[in-house]
Amino acid sequence: MNKTLRKAVIAGNWKMNKNRKEAQALITELKPLVKDATCDVVICVPFTNLETALRETEGTNIKVGAENVHFAASGAYTGEISADMLTEMGVEYVIIGHSERRQYFGETDETVNLRTKAALEAGMTVILCVGEMLADRENGITEELVALQTKVALKDVTKEQLSRVIIAYEPVWAIGTGKTATADQAQEVCAVIRNVIANVYDKEAADAMTIQYGGSMNAGNAEELLSKPDVDGGLIGGAALKAQDFSVIVKAATNG
Predict the structure, then answer these.
(1) Cα 209 to chain center, whole Å?
(2) Which residues contact 11 (CB under 8 A, 6 or more apart)?
(3) How much is the mean pLDDT over the chain?
(4) CA torsion 92→86→240→127, rounded to 10°?
């Protein structure tokens, strides 16, 4: 992390977990554990938990995000939620392009771009996910693939809007598998992403860009991962469902 240039952000991705009662209990336990954090703390929760999360975090340093958003403002898109619907509730953040959305629900680089632009136009902060499959890494094309995903996702995004984008590097082979990229591997790809931002925008934009690591970061490895200069935080999956574990990661970002 380099806190002199950019924010450190720890965001929890709850995925499809927790009913409202369970969400309330988890947030109640989490609040005192992270109240002194100097990094930004975000919890991205299922749509059914958004009102609970917004109510329970009011007046705290915890921000609330959604796990997905549609690219249209309204229309015949059964089961989808628009950016305006989220912002009307008070939701500030949204995850876009998570590998599970790409793998199971047909997200493409192009639809990720459309969703990103819709969320930014609505005033939201986007956590934009990019990352390679295991075969991509074994074939030596990680850098090219991640660069392409980043460029397409940010097509027509202005430099001003870019200030509300956080990029999460999530190697798909390390999500929910218990496997983790080494700190050096995470640093290498996060640096590639920052270089892409410098080339597409400029060095100022690249220096200001928060880039998270999102592949099985946990209480045991967070400190080492966050010690790398281009790893500015984490998009946390399983560990975000345990207040104590999540708070250890927040503490590592605060102290780093």
Answers:
(1) 13
(2) 41, 42, 43, 44, 65, 93, 95, 127, 166, 168, 212, 233, 234, 235, 236
(3) 96
(4) -60
Q: How far apart are the first and last CA of the chain?
A: 7
Interatomic CA distance for residues 247 and 62, integer angstroms: 12
Q: What would the two tokens of residue 11 be?
A: 């965001």
Q: Write the single-letter amino acid at 90.
A: G
Instruction: Report the top-level CATH class of 9-255.
Output: alpha beta
pLDDT tens digits for range 156-179:
999 999 999 999 999 988 877 777
The domain limits of the chain are 9-255
Beta bridge partners of 126: 94, 165
> Residue 254: its pLDDT value, please?
96
More confident residue, 175 or 119: 119
**Residue 29 a catalytic site member:** no
Residue type, 119: A
C-alpha distances (whole Å) from 50 to each of 57, 106, 138, 167, 242 are 10, 24, 39, 22, 18
The one catalytic residue among 56, 67, 70, 98: 98
Q: Is 170 a catalytic residue?
A: yes
- Report, as an integer, the average pLDDT of 185-206: 97
